[in-house]
Amino acid sequence: MKIAIKTSILAAFLATLSLTFIRCESTANKAKKTTTDLAITSSQSNEAPIYREPLVFIAGTDGSDYYKNAKKYYEDKQFEVVTEAFSITEIINWLNANYDERLYTDIYIVSKNNPWTGMELETNVHGKKTTANNLKEALLNGEIPKLNQGITQDTNIIFNASALGDDADLVLLLKSTLSTSDVSPKIIASSYYNVFGEKFSPHNLAKSYTVFYPTANSPGKVDLSKEIAKKYPNEKEIDWYDALNNETERFVGDAYTIQFNIPLSWEFIYEGDEEVPYFENQEEIIDWVKNNDEISAKMDNLNIPLEKFRWSSKTKKDKLTIKAITTVLSVLKPLIQPYGDLQHIEPEIDNLRLYSIH
Q1: For site-directed labelling of 317, which of 86, 162, 241, 293 has its Cα 20 to 30 A away?
Q2: Residue 330: inside a domain
Q3: Tens digits of residue pLDDT in 313-357
Q4: pTM
Q5: Quick one: three-class SS letters along the chain?
């Protein structure tokens, strides 16, 4: 009986010891698991951010090869190219919809830019050309969506839009428009003309020299070459008459001319006893324009002399239509390396002699 009692006591002791051991092992395993989980969580929180490859928006379609050449240039560089966004609204919507946790690095926006009338890039779908005034109006009207995420302070948004770097008001508006609620990217633009697809370089920059004349009333290349030489007396390397007759870069660094028109139009409605003006010639229209605050303000912003436009007017009942059109001849001088082999300067965005950063 004593033996049985001792055996029973010993069994109970061993069972208690075994249970204690199991509990201790379980506690140790839990502690180990908790430590492991913390390590994993800590590792995940310290992971380096993932960045997206450079992204390009070809924001225009026209009959020339400009956009086609730009698309090929960036595809050859293995950049991601988007060809279905032609407005700021569509670009922001695309960035919001396609954000996949990878942060945006370099975003290129290719758009032809007329320094006097704005970019072909629209403010919103089927909207106006992007100018400082048009973009400001679209923002005030709530027509532009907000960029949600994916942008950092190191994100570069590069506009390949000729001479945009000279339009400080528009650049600052673009920076604000393409910012998230708490982060602003860097906006990079150049004062030079962007050229894509010339036979000597797939992408290069050129300095522009301009002269104007009333459309369809050219004074002739000789007089225009004298006028532009007088306008830019410090430029000694260009044969202006020769350049005005060149339509393309014949050899590396050769100056050539592009041309385009700037058409303008205004409509005025006269009510009651107001008399609709009637003009017999251009001189009378110009005199009237000088005294009209609305047109004068517009012309002052363009900074093109009134006599460089061809003016016309049309009266129909109580409506007066004033139209003006000028032709711009822009002599482009490609930027060439100052030493070594004769070749174009590479349009590198970190070259502060070529691009401004805002």
Answers
A1: 293
A2: yes
A3: 999 889 999 999 999 999 999 999 998 889 999 999 999 999 999
A4: 0.83
A5: CHHHHHHHHHHHHHHHHHHHHHHHHHHHHHHHHHHHHHHHHHHHHCCCCCECCCEEEECCCCCCCHHHHHHHHHHHCCCEEECCCCEHHHHHHHHHHCCCCCECCEEEEECCEECCCEEEEECCCCCCEECHHHHHHHHHCCCCCCCCCCCCCCCEEEEECCCHHHCHHHHHHHHHHCCCCCCCCEEEEECCEEEEEECCEEEEEEEEEEEEEECCCCCCHHHHHHHHHHHCCCCCCCCHHHHHCCCCCCCCCCCEEEEEEEEEEEEEECCCCCCCCCCCCHHHHHHHHHCCHHHHHHHHHHCCCHHHCEEEEEEECCEEEEEEEEEEEEEEEECECCCCCCCECCCCCCCCCCEEEC
Q: Are residues 234 and 302 in the same domain?
A: yes
Do 186 and 72 reside in the same domain of the chain?
yes
Say how many domains are in the chain. 2
Give domain status of residue 138, yes or no: yes
